[in-house]
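Let us practice reading a record.
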Amino acid sequence: MTKRALPPALVVCLSAFFYVWNAPCSAAQGVEVSLQKTEPFAYFCMPVKGSYSQIQEAIGKLMMEMQGQNAMPTGPLLGIYYNNPELVNSQDLEWEIGFPVSPRQAVQPPLVLKEWSFTQVAASLHKGSYADVGKTIAKITEWMTANGYAPAGPIMERYLDMNPSEMRPEELRTEIWIPCQKK
């Protein structure tokens, strides 16, 4: 199997992601939440159990496996988070980091091919530091409660900027989806 080099834009994007993960928090202002219909899509990921402090290592492993397996993403880097860090010990957190991909893409362990099957999400665009995303997630959950919705799946973060190293942390964009259903 021949290894291919990663596209330069992706290398810059991921390098910057490592840098800004611990950037100073900025205020989450103007949070607008909407109910959106989504289409199911395939993604490959690196599942992780444990503290979010492992994120840089997990992304590094994801990138090495992706390159070694010639897996080609079709969209932005994703983070999917299955439990609340305020309710479980950090060693019990379950999350994954990955990319959307063609459903025909073959992957081998430790990568896992999955499908995002949720078709209704409460969504918001977070503008600011990645370290401050929790404020936007809190606003989304407040909106869901106020509008009679309950969570129906894991939280997804979609990191939208191609070159975050060229941006100020307060200008970064992260789309957040929380699957939901009427209570």
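A brief commentary: The CA atoms of residues 16 and 166 lie 8 Å apart.
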